[in-house]
Amino acid sequence: MSRVYNFSAGPAVLPEAVLKEAADEMLDYRGCGMSVNEMSHRSKMFQDIIDEAEADLRDLMGIPANYKVLFLQGGAHQQFAAIPLNLCNLPGASKKADYINTGMWSKKALAEAKRFIDAQEIASSADETFTYIPDCSDLPVREDADYVYICENNTIYGTVYHELPDTKGKVLVSDVSSMFLSQPHDVERYGVIYGGVQKNVGPAGLAIVVVREDLIPTEDLPSVPVMMQWRPQADAGSLYNTPNCWSIYMCGKVFKWLKGQGGLEGIYEHNKAKAAILYDYLDESKLFKGTVRREDRSLMNVPFVTGDADLDALFVKESKAAGLENLKGHRSVGGMRVSIYNAMPIEGVEALVAFMKDFEAKH
Ligand SMILES: Cc1ncc(COP(=O)(O)O)c(C=O)c1O
């Protein structure tokens, strides 16, 4: 068996120890004679799995008791709709929300919200191809906005908020899909913090939504499809319908793995050290150029270019032959993109930088 260094933006690399453990349990989960893929989501065995996963996640993120943890299907995209549909149907809601546009993922969330409510953009970095995070110290937040929305780490452009926006007292909603569990978050600063797990946490097909309890409508919303409402899932412990059992099980294993890495503080230090190896080289390279403003650089997604599309293509081709997979930039940006999520070992980044140095020497 030979595993490559997989720099995919998602679905992405998972910890090898977790994959091995899951492989060991595939035919017979802890003596029950079946795999997790075969057991009822109503069984005691699965209830224990989901309960333990939630308890470990609460522990890792320090989630306060007045927040609910929902394990949902439909990916982050479903939440682009569910967020306005739930938050703007709370009693007294104005059905207005303000969005900060840092590229594709916040743009799509805004477009989706506009189907249902008066959603508007209050800041944007479109003028410089989303290579920076806009100044969020004095945003024109509407007095009656129900919430302010951000995509905290933009997977495509490689930007991250190092400081959360001043929402002027409004509820903050954050999509953390591509930075989930890569660093500590102060959960109490958010009304909703959510993401698809397929980048940093587990197999595709699951979104985790951490939402303050008072932001979950208490009554049925007759105009909103049941599957878009948070309340039925919150009341049923994310078992209103058949959930993505496999992904919940795998995420649970990743949570335990993260605890073994020193929790979110520990993995954050590791992630900073890993990213520094790559950024330090990009800063000294004469061939490669990082595309993001220095102070807004993501620790997870690192886009860079040579400035020559043919050379970029050659780099992607030769890196693949060297066992460095999925380095092609997103189709909307071009160039290269390195995703260095939690499970990418430091050796992977070292191998990449050694390859880049070699490539630079030759071209
Ligand atoms: C930051 C961010 N938000 C949302 C999405 C969409 O997630 P999903 O495919 O789970 O709907 C992605 C990527 O897929 C993403 O990177």
Describe the protein in words.
The protein has 9 helices and 14 strands. It has 363 residues and is α/β, with parallel strands linked by helices. It has a 7-stranded mixed β-sheet. Strands 11-12-14 form a 3-stranded antiparallel β-sheet. Strands 1-13 form a two-stranded parallel sheet. Helix 1 (16-24) crosses helix 6 (245-260), helix 2 (44-61) packs across helix 6 (245-260) and helix 7 (263-284) runs parallel beside helix 9. The radius of gyration is 21 Å and the shape is globular. The mean pLDDT is 97. Bound molecules: pyridoxal-5'-phosphate. Residues 10, 75-77, 105, 151, 155, 175, 177-178, 196 line the site of pyridoxal-5'-phosphate. The site of pyridoxal-5'-phosphate has 11 residues, from helix 3.
Strand order of the largest sheet: 2-10-9-8-5-3-4
* pLDDT averaged over residues: 97
Bound molecules: pyridoxal-5'-phosphate
Biggest sheet architecture: 7 strands, mixed
What's the number of extended β-strand segments? 14
Write out the CATH superfamily name of the largest domain: Type I PLP-dependent aspartate aminotransferase-like (Major domain)
Oligomeric description of these chains:
single chain
Which secondary structure elements does this structure contain, and how are they paired or packed?
Elements: E1 5-6, H1 16-24, H2 44-61, E2 67-72, H3 75-87, E3 96-101, H4 104-114, E4 118-124, E5 147-151, E6 153-154, E7 159-160, E8 171-175, E9 192-196, E10 207-212, H5 230-235, H6 245-260, H7 263-284, E11 289-290, E12 301-305, H8 309-321, E13 324-325, E14 336-339, H9 346-362
Parallel strand pairs: 1-13, 3-4, 3-5, 5-8, 8-9
Antiparallel strand pairs: 2-10, 6-7, 9-10, 11-12, 12-14
Helix pairs in contact: 1-6, 2-6, 3-4, 7-9
Bound molecules: pyridoxal-5'-phosphate (PLP).
Pyridoxal-5'-phosphate binds at residues 10, 75-77, 105, 151, 155, 175, 177-178, 196.
